[in-house]
Specification:
2 domains, Aspartate Aminotransferase, domain 2, 232 residues, 17% strand, 3-stranded mixed beta sheet, single chain
């Protein structure tokens, strides 16, 4: 490997990869340091926060100390030693409990966690938990329901799936009242964690044609946002 050849360390941005594998190895066990996100949109969440994994005990000890005011690991209330500059960057007990509960749920469930499907004229959302996974059904306007979907798969395994443009519009339909371009940009690239290059590769014409049919403030703002990018 290049790492051994050139003697460098690997710090891995694994924000969206908690629980995944690469070549039969869990992500988080291959790099020297791996960092996972616990943002609300992630597989396991604590509201905010992150996880760091390493197999280097000295580094792990330094990180434990740094997030706890720089205290030594063996310190007690009666004997406190501050060995380095530190911080108070740690999860509360309540958020930790939420994360651990989600971890136990994910660990015992099947590989498919959630599949989201669009419906119309149901006037409500439903969730079905099955041995295969959880299926979420969310209403969208009847006028946009058949648009932006395509066949995938082959033979008897063919199925309908939303295009990336339709999936984004369906997702934004769930968030109401976004009227400023700045707030929409934050929603797209911070809350939903879309990659800007991936967004730029979308069919912007199709995106705008779809968005106007949802008739919500958020999707109207999306149209303005896309037009601004096109004209930039």
């Amino acid at each position: 490997m290049l790492k051994e050849k050139y003697q460098f360390y690997i710090i891995e941005d694994a924000a969206c990869s908690l629980g995944t594998e690469y070549k039969d190895m869990k992500v988080g066990t291959q790099a020297d340091i791996s960092v996972f996100s616990l943002h609300p949109r992630k597989f396991i969440t604590t509201g905010e926060g992150r996880l760091i994994t390493t197999n280097n005990e000295a580094w792990a000890e330094w990180m434990r100390s740094y997030k706890h005011f720089g205290m030594g690991s063996g310190d007690t209330r009666s004997l406190v030693r501050f060995e380095r500059i530190g911080s108070n960057h740690k999860l509360s007990d309540v958020l930790t409990a939420i994360g651990l509960d989600l971890y136990r749920e994910r660990k015992t469930s099947s590989s498919l966690q959630y599949a989201t499907s669009a419906t119309y004229k149901k006037e409500r959302s439903k969730r079905y938990d099955t041995p295969v996974g959880s299926f979420l059904y969310q209403d969208v306007p009847a006028g946009v329901y058949p648009h932006g979907v395509m066949f995938a798969g082959e033979g008897e395994h063919r199925f309908l799936i939303a295009s990336a443009e339709k999936a984004l519009c369906d997702e934004l339909y769930l968030t109401s009242g976004v009227r400023s371009l700045g707030r929409l940009e934050h929603l797209l690239f911070e809350d939903l964690r879309l990659d800007l290059p991936a967004f730029n590769q979308l069919d912007h014409g199709a995106l705008m044609l779809l968005a106007v049919h949802y008739k919500t403030a958020t999707l109207a703002t999306l149209v303005k946002f896309v037009r601004k990018k096109i004209n930039a």
